[in-house]
Amino acid sequence: MLHVDCVTNFISSVHTYSHMGKLSLNEEKEKLIEVLNEELGLTPYESKAYIALLLHGPLSPQGVNQKSGIPRPRTYDVLNSLVGKGLLMEQPGRPPMYAAVDPKVGMEKMMVELERKLLRQLEEKRKTAERLSSTLSKLHDKSREVAVREERVWVTRRDSAFIARYCEAIRNVEEEFVVATPAASPPEKEVLEAVKQVLKKNKTVRVVRQITPQWTRDDLERYEELIRLGDQVRYLKYDGLRYAVFDKTDTVLVFPAEGGSQLAIWISLPSLAAILREHFEALWQEGQSALPILRKLKEAKT
């Protein structure tokens, strides 16, 4: 794929040498037409007309038709389109004359217009997505209710899709969410944001985990903010099973990676949740307040 700057420089050289009578560019012309079509989005007729004007200087519509080979009925439409894109200038008259703008100027203007067009399209797609999100969420909620009734076990990789569902489960907590983890790395930002939302709803969040020197100062400050909001965290050098329990009913178990990403198992089984809650309470009693350790690590990074 050729960069736009390279295309512009090449066109500039074509434009310069053609007026000096030094170019015969059959193969180069075809290659350039291909680049204009594929890289910059011109139509084949637009590319042929544009190259003809670069090579032969100002031309009337009939001259463009003769030099480029585009069909005569399409000539005016093609030329008007190139003028609108900033690649050509039109001199009114009978007949009107057309000339190529300096390619560096013309290409820059075309890129600006293309960027504006893409931004408008992106904004339209964003608005469409926002309008659809409510309807799609309702469909998703219905399917999730069915899945909860029909599937008590769900196995997945601990990937971005897992993180999204995990955050959704956190935000939907009705009473309490507890976590025990041996992970040395800090939680994902998306997880922290979901916990923050739950804490603002006055739900209970308790965590037993390590806080290690590999955390950055930003990691430590984000976690300290959660603690100030009410996240109850106890520090413990724990190397056991990684799990979370939601409202004493649903459980997530995360197993170490073996030659790939970590494996996660979601289980909707209150009896298992009760066993893990009992295990968590024992860890909770063994742990110590994480805030002093967190602040000590943060001071060491100043």
Structure in words:
The chain has 302 residues and is of the alpha+beta class. The chain has two domains: 4-112, Arc Repressor Mutant, subunit A; 142-300, Endonuclease Chain A (Endonuclease, Chain A), CATH 3.30.870. 58% of the residues lie in helices and 16% in strands. The protein contains eleven helices and ten strands. The chain has helices at 4-19, 26-40, 44-56, 61-68, 75-84, 103-150, 160-171, 189-200, 217-229, 270-286, 290-300; strands spanning 88-91, 97-100, 153-157, 176-180, 204-209, 232-235, 242-246, 250-255, 263-268, 288-289. An eight-stranded mixed β-sheet has the order 3-9-8-7-4-5-6-10, with helices on both faces. A two-stranded antiparallel ribbon has the order 1-2. Helix 7 (160-171) packs parallel to helix 8 and helix 8 runs parallel beside helix 9 (217-229). The two termini are 46 Å apart. The model is unreliable at 1-7, 13-24 and 146-150 (pLDDT under 50).
Overall CATH class of the largest domain:
Alpha Beta
Strand content: 15-25%
> Based on DSSP secondary structure assignment, what is the total number of beta strands?
10
Q: What's the domain count?
A: 2
**Looking at CATH, which topology of the largest domain would you report?**
Endonuclease, Chain A
Low-confidence residue ranges: 1-7, 13-24, 146-150
Class by helix and strand content? alpha+beta
Query: Spatial order of the strands in the main sheet?
Result: 3-9-8-7-4-5-6-10
> Which sheet architecture does the biggest sheet show?
8 strands, mixed
**CATH architecture label name of the largest domain:** 2-Layer Sandwich
- What average pLDDT do the residues reach? 82
How many helices in DSSP terms?
A: 11
The general outline is: elongated
Q: Radius of gyration from the CA trace? A: 32 Å
Helix proportion range: 55-70%
Compute the separation of the termini in Å: 46 Å
The CATH homologous superfamily name of the largest domain equals Endonuclease Chain A
* Series of H and E elements: HHHHHEEHEHEHEHEEEEHEH
